[in-house]
Amino acid sequence: MSAEPRHPPRPVLLVTGLSGAGKASILRTLEDLGFETVDNPPLPILAELVADGDAPLAIGVDARSRGFDAAELLRAIARLRADPGIAANLIFATAEEPVLLRRFSETRRRHPLAPGGPLGSRVTEGIAREAALLAPLRDAADLVLDTSDLPLPELRRQIERRFRPENAAGLAIGIVSFGFPKGLPREADLVWDVRFLRNPHYDPALRPLTGRDASIAGFVESDATYRPFWDRMTGMMELLLPRYAAEGKKYLTVAIGCTGGRHRSVLVAERLASHLETLGWRVDLIHRDLAAPPKPGGASAAGQEALAHTP
């Protein structure tokens, strides 16, 4: 009896199906999940591809693959399934003929198995030939996906739910603090402007500090508008993030800006990163302008109280 593998079996997915049914989209989704993807390799090197490496692997195979033979491919899949160190699955993408016809018409692509003749009849005959050729693979598939009425985000969700590796990253959130004078971060998807909060710059004792210091935190958080803003901002983020992830978004950059990029934006960015991490999100935190020295200057003692509330 074979010994059980010491590590979880390596996912190896073979992705096939009818041309135009979504095989490329499935492979892109798997690539986003951390799979190494190879599309249409020569079938004789299939075993070599699987043996080379230990990362999750997805291989696209269809009738265009060099040396394609459905029976031989099924034998290769059987060998993979017999290996206790491999979790092999066959995914088959299909769609109804009118849908495939429409997709080929919209993209103006030639069906790979279409013969000569009028365009519509060529595609129809190519679809029929391919369906017959791939029928044994459809019958043996672990998962058949009919994409006729399946929106792309839902296709991605189905693939992610079933094949996401344990260590695969989902939505990656970047939080960037910045100062408005140097411009918005170009990569920003969402921008929060916190210049309405009390500005520590006008207190000479606080000016050299940053939003990472407790004195700055106490000063900014004592602003009566801070708590209502925080509750609404985090509530909005908690509403949006699961929806972005569900739609297949892989990267989201949240930019938080103030006048100098050293005090208020840094504090709020630190707090937001910590809050989202406690909720289980993967967060990268960058303080774009924190290294810049504080600007000199200030206000007279008589004017400091008014200026403290000025953006």
Automatic annotation (TrEMBL):
Binding locations of GTP: 62-65
Superkingdom, natural source: Bacteria
Name of protein: RNase adapter RapZ
Record keywords: ATP-binding, GTP-binding, Nucleotide-binding
Entry keyword annotation includes Ligase: no
Positions bound to ATP: 17-24
RapZ C-terminal domain span: 172-290
Species whose genome carries this gene: Falsiroseomonas selenitidurans
Ranges where the RapZ-like N-terminal domain occurs: 12-165
UniProt xrefs under InterPro entries: P-loop_NTPase, RapZ-like, RapZ-like_N, RapZ_C
Residue stretches in coiled coil: none
